[in-house]
Amino acid sequence: MCPVILALVLSAGQPLDLSSVGDGASLPELVWKQSPELRDARIRIAQADAERRKALRLPNPGLDLGLNTIPVGPLNPPDLKDPFLNVPNVAVGLSVLLEIGKRGPRQEATSEAARAAALDALDLVRRRTLDLEDLIGDVASAQVRVDALQSLGADAQRLAELQAARADKGDTSALDADRAKLEVEGTLTAIGEAQELLAATQRACAEIVAIPCTQFADVTQANAWLDRHVRTGGPVEQRPDVRALEASIKSARAAQLLASRGWLPDPTVRFGYVRDQFVVSGNQQNSFFVGVSMPLPLFERGQDDAEAARIAAETTEQARARLLEAANAQLTRVDAEIVTVETRQKRVKEQSLPLARSVVSRLDAAVTRGAAPLQELLLARRTLAELLLTAAELDRTVFHLRVARARLSSSLELQVSP
C-alpha cells in the first residue's frame, strides 16, 4: 500500500541552501523527512497499516487440553487398582473460529482506512511544502528588496559625497549637501528594515523544516524563484485530501456492511483426540472428537455500529461535495486575480520602471553638471525606489497567488510511508 519514499540525505542541522532547491521538486521529500509536525502522521500511517495487515490474517486457533473423568467417591468396579492412573482420559483438541461474511468487508474497511491515513499525510506534506515554497518566495522577495535598496543607497552615497565636495567649493549650497546626506540616511533605514524582514522570513522558513534556511546566492536566483510557475498538477478531485475523503467513505461503507452482518453467527469448529484409560469399563482407548459452537445473535447484531458507520459515510460524502464546490469556486477567483495582478506587474516592469530609471539617470547627469536642482533628482529617486519596491511586492503577490492556486489543485506527486 505504501511504497517507501525517496530517502533524502540530509544530516540534522545542515542548512537548507535556497540556491540548491532548483524548481522545488525535492522539497516534498525534505518536508516529509525534516518537519517535526509530521511525526503524528507517520504514527497514524503505521497504526492504520498494522490494522490492514491484521485483517488479512486468519483468526488464531485455540488449543484445548483436558483431563477428564477424574474419579471421585466410590469406585466402579470397587476393586479397580490405581484409579487415578487407569480412569481419567486425556483430550487434546484445536478450535478455529470461522467468520461468515465478515472477512471481506473488514479487509476493505481497514485497507481504505489505511489509504485514507496515507493520503491525509500526503496532503499535510503537500500543504507544508507549499507553505515552504511560499516562505522561500518571501525570502526571495525580501532579498530583491534589499538588493534594490542597496543599489539606490550606493547611488545616494555617491551623490551625497559629490554634493558635499561641491558645497566645500561653494558650487552648491550646504542645504543641498544636507538634503543629499538625509537621503542617504533614509535609504539606510529602509535597507535595515528590509534586512530585518529578510531575517524574519528565513526564521519562518527554518521553522517548517527544523533546519536553518540560507538565502539565495544572488538576486538573479531570487528573481528566478519568483518568476517560476508553481506546479499546479491536476483537477481538484485528485487532491490528496479529496481522495482521502473518498477512501474514508469507502471504509465507512465497508464498516457498515461488516456491522450489518452481525446477525450471521460465526461458528467455532473443534477437532481433537481422546486417550481413554478406563478400558475396563468397555471404553474406546483411542478416539477423535469433532464439535461446533456458535453464538446466538438475539440482542446485539451490530445494528448500532452499522448506523454509526452509515452516518459517518453520509457526513463524509457531504463534506467532500462541499469541499469540491468551494475549491472550484476559489480557483475561478484566484485565476481572475492572477490575471489582474500580472497585468499590473507587466506595466510596472515594462513601462514604469524603465521610464523612472531613465529619468533618474538623466537628472543625475544634469545635477552632476549643475544643470538641474538636487530636489528634482531626489524626488525622482524616491519615485524609482517606490516603483522598485512595488515591483518586488507585485512579484511576491503573483507568486503567492500561484501558490494559492496550487493549494486548490492537485500539486504534488509523492508516496509516503512511516
Shape: rod-shaped
The biggest beta sheet is recorded as: 4 strands, antiparallel
SS content category: alpha+beta
Radius of gyration: 38 Å
Order of strands, widest sheet = 2-3-5-6
Arithmetic mean of pLDDT: 84
- Supply the CATH architecture: Up-down Bundle
- Give the tally of β-strands: 6
The name of the CATH topology is Outer membrane efflux proteins (OEP)
Instruction: Tell me the distance between the termini.
Output: 12 Å
**What's the structural domain tally?**
1
Task: Give the CATH class.
Answer: Mainly Alpha
Helices, by number, come to 9
* Helix share, percent: 55-70%
Strand-and-helix sequence, N→C?
EHHEHEHHEHHEEHH
- Low-pLDDT stretches are 1-13
How would you describe this protein?
The protein has helices spanning 27-34, 39-56, 83-86, 103-169, 174-209, 219-227, 240-260, 303-369, 374-408, and strands spanning 16-17, 62-68, 89-97, 213-214, 268-276, 286-293. The protein has a single domain (16-249, 264-296, 318-408), classed as Outer membrane efflux proteins (OEP), CATH 1.20.1600.10. By secondary structure, the protein is an alpha+beta fold. The strands form two sheets. Strands 2-3-5-6 form a four-stranded antiparallel β-sheet, with no helix packed on it. Strands 1-4 form a two-stranded parallel ribbon. It starts with 15 loop residues before the first strand and ends in a 10-residue tail after the last helix. The longest helix is centred in the N-terminal third of the chain and has 67 residues, at 103-169. Helix 4 packs across helix 6 and helix 4 (103-169) packs antiparallel against helix 9.
